[in-house]
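chain below, 426 aa
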Amino acid sequence: MNEAATPNDACAGLILLARNPTDSVTEGFLPAAARLGLAVTLLTDQPDAHRAAYERYACERRGGGPSAGALPGRLEIVPCDVRDFRAVIARTAAQVRRVGAPAAVFTNSDHLQVQAALAADYFGLPGKDWRAALRTKNKAELRRGLAAAGLDTVRSAELAPGDAPAGHGVPYPGVLKPREGVASEDVFLVADDAELAARCGEIRARRPGAALVLEEYLDGPLYTLETLGDGHVLHPLASFRTDISPPPHFIEERLTLLPEPAGPRTGQVLEHLRALGVGFGACHTEYVDQGGRARIIEVNYRAIGDRCDLALAEALDLPLFELILRTHLGEPLPDALAVRRGTRVRMEYVCADRDGTLKAAPEAHVQEADGVRLDYRPLRETGERHPLYRTNRDFLGVLRATGRDEGRIDAAVREFLAAHCWEIVP
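prediction:
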């Protein structure tokens, strides 16, 4: 790791890669960069969407005090084909010639970890090993990496474009998914050869040229492990228990923060991560606890999303976003992190169950009663029309319930959902 950059240096700059705007960037990493005194150059293939998102957020936060929701004083949005690492390096080099060398290259996007890692390495900056970033993004490589390390892995088969979905050797039921997919999009439970062939045809029609993987279905409770590392120290921060929709789809409906820092198989999960070369910055790992074994579903080499990262930072009373950025600035993490324990969090996602136009839905608001704080945020505006995606793009809103008593939290969530209406019309 290179020598750490010094935050608050007038010349310190952050190259931030992004595709679509996310709450993690808008409400998490950009305000954290401002607090660290970093000038931000945001490279994106969707510049207009980012400008609109930041203007909307600044308008919403106006009047909240001098530091509430503050965005970097120097934020430059630069168009770039961020999917191409060569374009990222070229744009960064142009920034170097214009304003000087950056202190860090960073992304929280699933799609851009390899590009950011290659760019950081090219400019001699701290960053993730691009091989580990590729290994975790590519689900077939992930399985091969775990198997090569002699660790328990899930039976799987890679289906290249044009491959016939036969002779794969994976037992049914199986889970079919895009090899580099995210957010449970185009993920299906398949029961036999005929269903596998039909689902392969559907996915390939939507994703021409995409490789797929078929994996054995893992039956058991689903958990996450959230970690933070600096390349030497790897901290297990927290675990969520995840409830998903009934098969054949796998949509996250609810996440509940476990009261202790470690999930049921944390030691095993950490062993898997080290074997994959994961240990720098944030990582969000999903696994099933099956018969006393951690069976890895996927490793997302970035912070957990869908507002769970914001909830986690608040619950742990931890400057999570600053710490993540500091690792990319080359700063070591402390051997122990001072975090608050005992706060319970439930993230409840209200999902569309049909396509159509959202006619009515509650507005954003916060309320507190009986020791429970409810924070509801709409994720789709009324009047918007959408198809049914069968992914987290179906989320209409997210309710964060925080308190010390799980029973009171559950009761407050039930009351909120019963008291409000989300109406979708054809």
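The radius of gyration is 21 Å. The chain has a mean pLDDT of 92.
thats it, cya
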